[in-house]
From TrEMBL:
One of its GO terms (molecular function) is oxidoreductase activity. It holds the Pfam family adh_short_C2. The keyword Oxidoreductase applies. Belongs to the short-chain dehydrogenases/reductases (SDR) family. This is SDR family oxidoreductase. GO terms for biological process: bile acid metabolic process. It comes from the Bacteria. Keywords: Oxidoreductase. PANTHER family: DEHYDROGENASES, SHORT CHAIN, ESTRADIOL 17-BETA-DEHYDROGENASE 8-RELATED.
Length: 255
C-alpha cells in the first residue's frame, strides 16, 4: 500500500502488533512516530527495522498521562508538520480475577492505559487532522470488546469502552474527512496472550491449547495479519470506511 511521505503515529509500537504496523507502513514509504513506555524497546524496533532520523521519531510515553500524550503529538508536528495516520494501539490485559477481588489500583491502571490513553490520543490528534481536513485513525479494541469472559472484567469492559469512544469520535470527525475505525483482534501470537494464558490458568500451555481449539481456524493469528488490516484502514483504499469495526479472530467471535 502507498504511504509515501505520510506521517503515522503508532502507540504501543514495541508490542507485537505495533511493531508489525510500523514495519508495514514504513515499507510503503511512511514516516513513523514510535510511541511506547519502554524507550529501550522502541529504540530496538527503530534499529531492527533500520529506520533513520529522517523517517522516524521515538517518543517515550505513558499514554495514561495527558501531558505525555500532548507531548508526542507536539513532537510529531514539530518534526514532520502533520499527522496522516494514528494507530491508537497501546493496551494492557490487566489481572485475571473475579469482580469481587478487583482493586481500585488495578482498575486505575487498566483504564488509565486502555481508556484514558485512547481518549487522550483522540483529544490531541483529532484537532490536527480536522485542521488538515484529512486523516485516518485506527483504535485497537479486541474481541473482548464484543463479549464477556470470566475473570477478565477490566480488560473486557475497557475494550467495550474503546468501541463506544470510537463510535463517537467517528461521528464527530466525519465532516472533516477524518476516518475513525477499530480493529478487534482475537487470540494473536503476542506477549499479551502469553500473559493472559499464564494469568487464567496454572498451566499456561494447556490454556494456550484451549484457546487454540476454540478458534474455528484452529490456530492463533499472527501480528502481521492484524497489521495488514490496520494498514488497509490507514490507507486511501479505505477512503469511504469510517465508524466500522473489523474483527480479526479466525472466526472465534461468530454471532
Amino acid at each position: 500500500m502507498n504511504f509515501q511521505d505520510k506521517v503515522i503515529i503508532v502507540t504501543g509500537a514495541a508490542g507485537g502488533i505495533g511493531k508489525e504496523v510500523v514495519k508495514k507502513v514504513v515499507s510503503g514509504g511512511a514516516k513513523v512516530v514510535l510511541v511506547d513506555l519502554n524507550k529501550e524497546a522502541i529504540e530496538s524496533v527503530q534499529s531492527e527495522l533500520q529506520l533513520t532520523q529522517d523517517n522516524s521519531l521515538v517518543v517515550q510515553t505513558d499514554v495514561s498521562n495527558e501531558e505525555n500524550v500532548k507531548n508526542y503529538v507536539e513532537q510529531t508536528i514539530a518534526k514532520f508538520g502533520r499527522i496522516d495516520g494514528f494507530v491508537n494501539n497501546a493496551g494492557v490485559e490487566g489481572p485475571a480475577k473475579p469482580i469481587e477481588e478487583i482493586t481500585e489500583k488495578e482498575f486505575d491502571f487498566v483504564y488509565g492505559i486502555n481508556v484514558k490513553g485512547v481518549l487522550f490520543g483522540l483529544k490531541h490528534v483529532l484537532p490536527v487532522m480536522k485542521q488538515q481536513n484529512a486523516g485516518s485513525i485506527v483504535n485497537t479494541s479486541s474481541v473482548a470488546g464484543l463479549t464477556g469472559a470470566p475473570s477478565m472484567v477490566l480488560y473486557n469492559s475497557s475494550k467495550h469502552a474503546v468501541m463506544g469512544i470510537n463510535k463517537v469520535a467517528a461521528l464527530e470527525a466525519a465532516a472533516y474527512n477524518v476516518r475513525v475505525n477499530t480493529v478487534n483482534p482475537g487470540v494473536i501470537n503476542t506477549q499479551m496472550m502469553r500473559n493472559i494464558e499464564a494469568n487464567v490458568s496454572e498451566d499456561a500451555e494447556a490454556a494456550k491449547h484451549a484457546y487454540n481449539d476454540a478458534v474455528p481456524m484452529k490456530r492463533y493469528g499472527e501480528p502481521e495479519e492484524v497489521a495488514n488490516v490496520i494498514a488497509f484502514l490507514l490507507s486511501d483504499e479505505s477512503s469511504y470506511v469510517t465508524s466500522s469495526s473489523y474483527t480479526i479472530d479466525g472466526g472465534l467471535f461468530n454471532v
